Amino acid sequence: MSTTRFWLIRHALVEPTARAVLYGTLDVALCAEQLEVERPAFAALAARLPRPAQWVATPLSRTRRTAEAIFEAGYPAQTLLIEPRLIEQSLGEWQGLVHADLPARLRLPEPAFWPLSGHEDPPGGESLAQVIERAGAAVENLAKAGAPDIVIVSHGGTIRALLAHAMGVGPDPVLHFSIQNLSLTRLERHPAGWRIVSVNEPPRALAGGGRDAL
């Protein structure tokens, strides 16, 4: 196995009514106004990302539309490989609920950055631990395919899950990571194991590049 560099991008901001609820795997639209505001961020990503690269998105339209916005900002248009195992965490019957309507027994003590612990799963949904298993298997398979650079446009929960996979830890520690919209997280799969290069790089700081510290 040769080294594979993964460039993980969280999708752009979704529209306001979706942000008011737990949307999970619901196929919600991006915010049209924010797409205009974030044109400099898309341009920064277009300039920063490697060429050539394999591009991967999830079955949800918000990841595909984010990739298209990066292409429109200057990155040569690519065919997107759709990988279902990289989709966001399913919240089952809780999808569509406003945050205040979650069952009180499942709200974590303060300080909490997500209403569920990593091993809790909502009715009809899945835990973050399950996301780690499926998303981890997906990137291991992609690495074995041999592309040196792979850009994945995915979701905040999935990117946290991939950090857990790379570090070999359970789900709860990675709930402390902030993964912002359009941020870049970089992982490398070496023959000897995983290396985390950066987490949550803000999009407007990307165009300058720079060498990685060894």
Q: Would you spell out the secondary-structure blueprint of this structure?
A:
Blueprint: E1 4-10, H1 16-19, H2 32-37, H3 39-48, E2 54-57, H4 61-72, E3 80-82, H5 128-145, E4 149-154, H6 156-167, H7 171-174, E5 184-190, E6 193-201
Parallel strand pairs: 1-4, 2-3, 2-4
Antiparallel strand pairs: 1-5, 5-6
Task: Please list the strands of the largest sheet in the order they lie side by side.
Answer: 3-2-4-1-5-6
SS-based structural class? alpha/beta
Number of strands: 6
- Give the H and E element order: EHHHEHEHEHHEE
> How would you name the CATH homologous superfamily?
Phosphoglycerate mutase-like
Proportion of strand residues: 15-25%
Residue runs with pLDDT of under 50 for 5 or more positions = 207-214
CATH 2nd-level architecture = 3-Layer(aba) Sandwich
Task: Calculate Rg over CA atoms.
Answer: 17 Å
**End-to-end span in angstroms?**
21 Å
Largest sheet: 6 strands, mixed
Question: What is the number of helices?
Answer: 7
Whole-number average pLDDT? Answer: 91
What is the 3D form? globular
CATH topology: the name is: Rossmann fold
- CATH level-1 class: Alpha Beta
The count of domains is 1
Helix content: 25-40%
